């Protein structure tokens, strides 16, 4: 597996939504869609073309403990109401690169958004964290340790964020497979 730090190299803009412990059908249901609406086999190029011409498309899958939805050029997975809905009884993580800075990070646990920030605000997140840190606090601490809020980080704040999500949440997505293979997909409607 390749982690997720490769996303900026392969996607100009993306929204990655991860939900722990769900199947693709369960993720589709929690997103508010009928599993019958899932397109069974879509390439990365087909998803991109449809996203640009018709409606946003999310490619779906499961990797390790995480069900995922990967959108190019849309951000439905980053909406707070989506995070609250998909994280009931579990947790979700979302990273959004809209094609323009900043990149955003969101973490929801059991129906509640517990963190929503851009990497340069990580120090503020640490200042506000509870006495019992949650995983997103570790991501914020890693951003601070890397010098992101001060602007002295060696490397992209986006890649550092993605590496920390890999490390602290145990996320890996199959890069080559996502580029070349068919994945189920969902045409998203804005509600």
Could you explain how this protein is built, in words?
The protein has 191 residues and is an alpha+beta fold. It has a domain at 7-117 and 171-187. Helices cover 34% and strands 26% of the residues. It is built from eight helices and eight strands. The chain has helices at residues 7-10, 24-30, 44-53, 80-86, 122-128, 135-145, 157-169, 175-180, and strands spanning 14-20, 39-42, 57-63, 66-72, 91-97, 104-109, 112-117, 183-187. The protein has an eight-stranded antiparallel β-sheet, with helices on both faces. The longest helix has 13 residues, at 157-169. The protein is globular, with a radius of gyration of 16 Å. 39% of the residues are buried.
Concise description?
With 191 residues, the chain is an alpha+beta fold.
The end-to-end span amounts to: 34 Å
Q: What about the largest sheet?
A: 8 strands, antiparallel
Shape field = globular
Low-confidence stretches: none
| Rounded mean pLDDT score | 91
What's the tally of helices?
8
Number of strand segments = 8
Helix percent reads: 25-40%
Walk across the major sheet and give the strand order: 2-8-3-4-1-5-6-7
Radius of gyration: 16 Å
Q: In sequence order, what are the helices and strands, one letter per element?
A: HEHEHEEHEEEHHHHE
Proportion of beta-strand residues: 25-35%
Structural class, by secondary structure, is alpha+beta
List the helices and strands and how they pair.
Layout (H helix, E strand, L loop, with lengths): L6 H4 L3 E7 L3 H7 L8 E4 L1 H10 L3 E7 L2 E7 L7 H7 L4 E7 L6 E6 L2 E6 L4 H7 L6 H11 L11 H13 L5 H6 L2 E5 L4
Antiparallel strand pairs: 1-4, 1-5, 2-8, 3-4, 3-8, 5-6, 6-7
